[in-house]
Amino acid sequence: MINGSITALVTPFRDGKVDDKAFQDFIEWQIANGTHGLVPCGTTGESATLSDSEHKRVIELCVEAAAGRVPVIAGAGSNETRVAIEYTRHAKDLGADAALVVTPYYNKPSQEGIFQHFKAITDNVDIPVVVYNIPGRSVVDITNETMERLYGLRNIIGCKDATGDLTRVTGLIDRCGEDFIQLSGDDPTSLGHSVHGGKGAISVGSNVAPAQYAAFHNACMSGDYATARAIHEKLDRLHKDLFLDPSPAPAKYALSLMQKMTTDVRLPITPSRDETKTAVEAAMTRAGVNW
Q1: Does the annotation mark 132 as catalytic?
Q2: What is the C-alpha to C-alpha distance for residues 31 and 74, in angstroms, rounded to an integer?
Q3: How far is CA 263 from CA 34, 79, 129, 187, in A?
Q4: Catalytically annotated residue among 87, 92, 132, 277
Q5: Could you give the domains of the chain?
Q6: What is the pLDDT of residues 28-74, one digit of tens each?
């Protein structure tokens, strides 16, 4: 099942290369701390700076480390439909449970272009697909009407919504029903997203505090919103301060304090500023993260 606290995994680097061991050790730690699912090669994984061979290797490492214990939803998007088909096919071949496919960025396609993009992917690859709607990065927004059309395609099982617009949850339940898996892509609004009927979140913060985010989503899924709100209040600064500098630099700084990986990021992302480091440390303390 795809629900709960799903970590948008950072990709550890060392000396300019993917740090295979740190990545698999990190995944083991995530699962041991209750994370419900894993997303390799998403935005937080710096997928835009991975080579084709690195992209495939990161997914392979994740599938191998997860060993079927939690779902692996592999990032497989591109602004070029043929490349998105290729990445989605590789995700299936490598054993991923589903593919996370972002709306085509930079091109600014029409709603019909978005539909045809996803149709081409699902026509060519037989793997469950989660549609990733993030207009803040891709420029284009998927309307509820288009999302309903997409859900009519084979293998489209749900969406990751990073708009922060909580009214969409009920709107999509009305159009697509309860079985359509709606995942938040925005930690600060994931509590409200769940209240409206969301099934979980693909989270940045859970990189740093997997146990706390798992507990938060467990409370949401059980309908214990008093507990969920109390946890949310402790996590609120972490939600936000991990974005004081372009992600995932602040998350990697936090994880370096915990000796999980180096702070290495790839240009055009740069390491966190000193003032961001101070804020992140305070947010970690408030969230109950030890280092």
Answers
A1: yes
A2: 16
A3: 24, 28, 31, 22
A4: 132
A5: 4-229 (3.20.20.70)
A6: 999 999 999 999 999 999 999 999 999 999 999 999 999 999 999 99
